[in-house]
Amino acid sequence: APLLTLLGQECANFPTQYLDHLLKCVKAIPLTELTPALLSFVGDLSIRCKEQSQRTEMIELLWSIVMDETTPTEVVSRAMSKLQEIFKSSVFAFMRNEWLVRLINILKSSSTLHQTRFCYEALNVIIQSFPARIIDGTSAEAETVYVVTERLQAEHHLLDFVFEELVKFHSESAAALEALKASDKQPDDIGKAILCGRTPFLSELESRLVFLECLLRRFNSGVAASHFENVWSSLVERAFWQGEADALFKWIITCRGKSELLIALTDDTLTALFNSRMTLSPQLMATSEAAFNTFKYVFCDVNTLSKRITWAPDKEESLEITSRPTQLLGYSALWEI
Fold it and tell me: How far is it, in rounded angstroms, from Cα 82 to Cα 46?
């Protein structure tokens, strides 16, 4: 490992043929024998080498390791970690747009759940590597993260795809769980069970919600209300495990949190979701602590927007009712809960 670290640090000074030989040696190693030190070495080479063709070949090697479903999961995780470092580096900047299109094409070409998850992770990192604003003196070709996300939606309908794939993921996971039950293999902990793909169900679900929030914090206008309603129907109304619904409940509160970026769930979207789903099925908002906490949060939020109360999310004791209680949105549903 120390020798590989030293080689990775000094590779910028190596003749091209030496780097070609090193890369050839790494490629000859079976996937099961790839160590963290070797993967770190390839990552260092891709960032520090001078020849773009060699850098591209090293990135391709790491990506092929991630996409190969026979690769041991610990090797996949390590390779993905190195790729994330590369995606964030300045040497990758001119390749970002090319990779964005490539990853979206993989997603839309019947990718497996394993591939979908890591495409989302890669997209998440690359999208966030674009600047929030253009600084004076920056290249005229530079784009802000908001422009990039809007372009991805306009040209590739990326947000639509992610919403629809999330619903599909729920359906496939539900079918896989039913198959396990039919064979008397009911998992003790559904969240930790591998229903689809190669990683635990809850991890798969949360990775999708994280990426969806990433997109919505950079482009949240003009998103069809039906997308949110379909996700609610799948993860809450047809949830096959309470933890599935709770993941969405917690995500809703996270999406309303303030940040330097956009609020992921707009005021109109939140109000529509509250009126069309939460208040019409109050029994679903009493199924867990996470469910009720979300109802309470959104109840205060939408009534603050309509100026029926004053409330600060970070100061629960700040709530002050400024209208008659019966005029509060969701008042009847609150009583039913």
Answer: 10
